[in-house]
Amino acid sequence: MARIAFFLLLFLSQTVAYSQSEVSQTSVFYEELSNAALSLTKDRVIYDPNYYRIGYPNGDVPAGRGVCTDVVIRAYRKLDIDLQKELHADIKANFELYPSRRMWKLNKPDTNIDHRRVPNLQTYFKRKGTVKKISDNAEDYNVGDIVTWDLGKGITHIGIVVNRRSKDKKRLLIVHNIGYGQVLEDCLFKWKITGHYRYKK
User: How far apart are CA 126 and CA 140, in angstroms?
Assistant: First the structure.
């Protein structure tokens, strides 16, 4: 019995150590995502919602151009995750689960624009990431979380929660592009939150 107890204890200790290591690696990933998003604020970017034909995979609109979704795409790319490619694979296999036909009258995937649309990213993160609760409690939002908002009149928005705090230390800040470049702002509760996600491939 003592021998069995010893091996059981050894197994449990290894399991705990593995779990702690996994949590640590996950925390590092989201810190890196935060830092990647913050690095984007150093680039001068003009808000440009125009449709562009871009390469695939790893396609991007011209340097110095972009919208809110491009912040998310570019931050993940700095961590070698290509959301253009990942989303395309999923929308190609599950086209009817995405709002492309309903919202934009498309009949097939489009690698130039699908990943640059907030409702598509929301669908992808729901399917492949973790959906977190929407609340008015700042403590529910963690570094590396993805948040989407309704700006009114059917306008959607998206940004990344980063490891910088508001002046009153009550909220984490957001890196986003709402019309004046890739910026860091205290705007978590500025608009109606419609989605709260966490994604690590």
Answer: 18
What distance in Å separates the CA atoms of residue 176 and residue 45, rounded to the nearest whole number?
A: 11
User: Percentage of residues in the chain with pLDDT exceeding 70?
Assistant: 89
CATH of the domain at 89: 3.90.1720.10
CA-based nearest residue to 183, from 163, 154, 160: 160
Rounded to whole angstroms, how far apart are CA atoms 35 and 135?
25
Give domain status of residue 1, yes or no: no
What is the per-residue pLDDT across 66-124, written as a single tens digit (0 to 9) for each? 999 999 999 999 999 999 999 999 999 999 999 999 999 999 999 999 999 999 999 99
Domain count along the chain: 1
From the number of C-beta atoms within 10 Å of its C-beta (0-12, 13-18, 19+), residue 112 rates as middle
Whether pLDDT at 12 is above 90: no
**Alpha carbon distance 36, 30 (integer Å):** 10
Q: Does residue 134 register a pLDDT over 90?
A: yes
Write out the E strands in 110-181: 130-131, 146-152, 155-165, 172-176
Q: What was the pLDDT predicted at 25?
A: 80
Domain coverage including residue 163: 30-198
Helix, strand, coil: what percent of the chain each, to 5? 40, 20, 40
DSSP code at position 191:
S
